[in-house]
Write a structure and sequence with these properties.
The complex is a heterodimer of chains A (206) and B (222). Chain A is α+β, with helices and mostly antiparallel strands. Chain A is 44% helix and 21% strand. Chain A has helices spanning 6-52, 133-136, 138-142, 171-205; strands at 65-68, 74-81, 87-99, 102-111, 116-123. The radius of gyration of chain A is 23 Å and the shape is extended. Chain A starts with 5 loop residues before the first helix and ends with a helix. By secondary structure, chain B is an all-alpha fold. Helices cover 74% and strands 2% of the residues of chain B. Classes of the chains: A alpha+beta (206), B mainly alpha (222). The A-B interface holds A 7, 10-11, 14-15, 18-19, 22, 25-26, 29-30, 33, 36-37, 40-41, 43-44, 123, 125, 127-130, 167-168 and B 37-38, 40-41, 44, 66, 69-71, 73-74, 77-78, 81-82, 84-85, 88-89, 92-93, 95-97, 99-100, 103-104, 107, 156-157, 160-161, 176, 178, 181-182.
Chain lengths: 206, 222
């Protein structure tokens, strides 16, 4: 049997109290920040959605639906509709798994004709000052506007494509270009199912 | 509340020590991890410095308050729990109410935990001093750290991208100097800044010595 003297008990107890107080503080702060964090994230998503979708009369956030990619995975699709309820474009988050340091999440909007409306980066871990140009280099981001599968070479210039790379950062833009092209292929393959889904939704609402 | 001229000058000494003579970056060369990571621009450096200042104020305050109750054998794990909790609080609060900044600094906030300058102050100062002195130490150290990050961020942003706080300085045709955006540029810029700091310190010391000699001369004369 192991016994503890008074000193040892005091030591263990004080560490226990410190940990308990820390846990209580964290639980409290988590509680009060949970809603503001969710709001901030929704607001950020809304801000990006407005930029990657054409002018619309509906609330794409409210009309979001999940689309199955595989048995386990789904993707959230945000539709933009005109005042008659016709779909103008879809937006969703495309994931580039091969960034310079981890995955890059790209919010892309695609017109039903299959042209890119615009793209925005929603999450990334790229080098500040180098690869993170994908988030704020508007000249580069605007290059994606109106590009489509059949008229665009989906690669960086270094690889013989249409898109600029950055000084000192090729991997990041390459990953984004590749992912957006993959997103367009996804759209082409599932266009009919997507439109069908939106139509049935409209009927349901009526 | 303790007041009086002697204590006020003590506070001043603590602040100046923390900000300049014992600066976490310039003198102790602590906290290199966030230093090299975030100082690619002046803005990033500034906000990272402020976040660190917040954590430092909190950790020095709490450690100084509990210093008499924590047995010295477990003080280090206790301090680490305190600091890690504070960093998580800053992380959550920034995520909730400063979301845009969080998107830029989010990756570096957890690095504050491993910033040894903070544990260093808890161990070397706050665990041995009263609350008001500890807060003053945190203020001096934290502002000194912010100043160092801001300075290095500015140098790297100017040399690397020809900008300061996002504004073009040398015009749009400035050829970006890649090296200053990458970690080697941080080391080189830091080296030159340290040389500059040493130069200033030598000047200050000479001035002090000259003043001291003058005083002695006056004293011996009378």
């Amino acid at each position: 049997m192991i016994t503890f003297d008074k000193n040892q008990r005091k030591t263990a107890l004080s560490l226990f109290v410190v940990a308990l107080l820390a846990a209580a503080l964290l639980a409290f702060v988590d509680q009060i920040t949970r809603e503001p964090i969710a709001n901030a994230q929704r607001e950020a998503l809304h801000k990006n959605l407005v930029q990657v979708l054409p002018k619309h009369k509906n609330d794409p956030l409210k009309e979001m639906f999940e689309f199955p990619l595989s048995k386990q995975q789904t993707v959230e699709i945000f539709p933009a509709k005109d005042k008659h309820g016709n779909v103008l474009a879809y937006a969703w988050e495309q994931i580039a798994p091969d960034g310079y340091s981890g995955t890059i999440r790209i919010l892309m909007g695609v017109r039903i004709s299959g042209e890119v409306v615009a793209i925005r980066i929603t999450d990334h871990r790229e080098t500040p000052g180098l690869g993170d140009g994908i988030t704020h280099n508007m000249t580069w981001l605007n290059h994606f506007i109106n590009q489509s599968l059949d008229k665009t070479k989906w690669a960086v210039k270094k690889d013989g494509g249409d898109f600029d790379q950055f000084t000192g950062a090729t991997i990041t833009p390459r990953a984004v270009v590749k992912a957006v092209a993959k997103g367009l292929v996804f759209y082409q393959e599932n266009k009919n199912t997507l439109l069908e889904k939106s139509k049935s939704q409209v009927l349901l609402e009526k | 509340m303790i007041t009086g001229t002697e204590n006020e000058s003590d506070k001043q000494t603590i602040f100046v020590e923390g900000f300049w003579y014992n600066n976490a970056i310039f003198a102790q060369l602590l906290g290199m991890c966030p230093l090299l990571g975030v100082t690619t621009s002046a803005e990033n450096g500034f906000w990272m410095g402020l976040a660190t200042l917040l954590v430092l104020l909190g950790s020095n305050l709490i450690v100084s308050l509990v210093r008499d109750y924590i047995p010295s054998t477990v003080r280090i794990p206790a301090y680490i729990v305190i600091i890690a909790s504070l960093v998580t609080v800053v992380d959550l609060v920034m995520n909730a109410w400063m979301h845009e900044m969080y998107l830029i600094l989010g990756l570096f906030i957890p690095l504050i935990v491993v910033n040894c300058a903070i544990l260093g102050r808890a161990e070397a100062f706050a665990s041995k001093n009263n609350v008001s002195d500890s807060l003053m130490d945190a203020l001096g150290m934290g502002l000194g750290f912010t100043f160092a990050l801001l300075l290095l961020g500015s140098v790297r942003e100017i040399l690397g991208q020809g900008q300061l706080f996002g504004f073009e300085i040398f015009g749009a045709n400035y050829p970006d100097v890649l090296m200053f955006i990458l970690p080697p540029g941080a080391f080189i810029a830091l080296g030159f800044i340290l040389a500059g700091v040493n130069l200033v310190n030598i000047r200050l010391k000479r001035k002090k010595e000259a003043m001291f000699l003058q005083k002695e001369a006056v004293a011996s004369h009378s």
